[in-house]
Amino acid sequence: YAAVIRNLHDKYLEKQDDTLIEQIKNLKLRLNLTRWMQIFGIVSLLLCVLTMFLIYIEYAILAVWIFGIALLLLILSLALLVREIQISIRALSLHLSDIESHLSKK
Q1: For residue 6, what are the CA distances in angstroms to 1, 33, 85, 91?
Q2: CB 70 within 8 A of CB 41
Q3: Which of 19, 59, 99, 100 has the most C-beta neighbours closer than 10 Å?
Q4: Separation CA 49–CA 15 (nearest Å)
Q5: Tell me: the pLDDT tens digits for 15-73?
Q6: Judging by beta carbons within 10 Å of its beta carbon (0-12, 13-18, 19+), is residue 83 exposed, middle or buried?
Q7: How far apart (Å, rounded) are the C-alpha atoms in residues 37 and 40?
Q8: Cα(16)–Cα(100) distance, rounded to whole angstroms?
Q9: Is 17 helix (H, G, I), strand (E, B) or coil?
Q10: What integer pLDDT is reported at residue 35 of this predicted model?
Q11: In this predicted model, what pLDDT tens digit does every residue of 73-91 receive, in sequence order?
């Protein structure tokens, strides 16, 4: 993402094109989705480790609830991943159709 953002930044400074602004907005959305996906995934993993510890010290009831929360966070993380992939594919499809339209004009 960092290289793409830097590249878009340089292009925008060269020529302030509205399509570049849309690409930048798209990248901001994807970055936010990725950030939250990673946060939910990491917290889910930490809660799974806490669950193992709770089982070890024989707090099984609490472990069940903590593990349930971990599973919900993992579901959220995966849902955000699916959404980010959809946005990414749509953006790449737009680039490909743009290239195809230029090729068909030649």
Answers
A1: 9, 19, 21, 17
A2: no
A3: 59
A4: 50
A5: 777 777 777 788 889 999 999 999 999 999 999 999 999 999 999 999 999 999 999 99
A6: middle
A7: 5
A8: 24
A9: coil
A10: 95
A11: 999 999 999 999 998 888 7
Structure tokens belonging to residue 8:
């878009």
The single residue listed with the structure tokens 């995966």 is 78
Q: Which amino acid is at 29?
A: L
DSSP for the chain reads: -HHHHHHHHHHHHHS--HHHHHHHHHHHHHHHHHHHHHHHHHHHHHHHHHHHHHHHTT-HHHHHHHHHHHHHHHHHHHHHHHHHHHHHHHHHHHHHHHHHHHHHH-
pTM of the model: 0.76
